[in-house]
Amino acid sequence: MFEATISVADTDSLLTLFGACDQHLKQLRSALPVEISARDGKIHVQGDEESVTQATEVLEYLQSKIARTGSLDTLQVSQVIARVRSDPESLEALPIDVHEATRVIQPRTNGQTKYVEAMRKNDVTFAIGPAGTGKTYLAVAMAVEALKNQQVRKIVLVRPAVEAGENLGFLPGDLYAKINPYLRPLLDALREMMDHEQMKRYMEEDVIEVVPLAYMRGRTLNEAFIILDEAQNTTTGQMKMFLTRMGFSSKIVASGDVTQVDLPAHTRSGLTDAMARLGNIEGIDRVQLTTSDIVRHRLVNEIVRAYEQGAKKRR
Length: 315
Known about the structure:
There is one protein chain. The chain has 11 helices and 9 strands. With 315 residues, it is an alpha/beta fold. The strands form 2 sheets. A 6-stranded parallel sheet has the order 6-5-7-8-4-9, sandwiched between helices. Strand 2 and strand 3 (42-47) form a beta hairpin. It is globular, with a radius of gyration of 22 Å.
């Protein structure tokens, strides 16, 4: 029998850690064959050495999370347990520092952790994955962090307007009104990380810029964090044009879902092509997210799996 002890900051944090009616504690006991008790200001964990080590990792990480946010829920507990059991090193990912002081954003799965680390370490990051894996949300969070820390001077949000054939002239309103429907996912993510007035001011001052892909031609963007959303709907030529807009001290993130390509038949996706063509260049990284990285409603995961299975049967 192996035993480990963990110090407890105070009674309130212990109650939050264990959860109402010890629900978090029951989750941990159910997942790992350990006995957990609290006495004399310490948590005692008993069991075989590997299980005790994993349970201790979970409890220490959850304690640090409570210290940062003051709260904990059952979903977060189950995610941390899963991550520790598959890859304990993934818990080293740092939270993303966005403008909202009360909001903590950080990767919730191993795949998301690799994605955030890739964006931190590289100037160009490609990411593919199904809906709900956080491709757009985490990229916007990293852009906001870079702006807040003065690593860049502006954020540029880009998306191909495939449904309108890149020809926006027939739509009513000014440019922003024309492209708003296409950039809505990016703007929704941004609104969660900044207050309305600050975001409005940044957009008026061109600190945050939203543009359709077709309007990127001929530009050079220095000290910018540039996000290309729905990148699977670019052609090879469009992707080359987009990537070569990159100036000094800039970062690019291009993400998309290669199972949802809206290009004409037999047209190669620029995202697929770029990931294959540029993957061995230093400073460029590729990340593949899967259904295990979906963090939306649990049914999204089931829906994606059902469609994937249907596609396999038709092959």
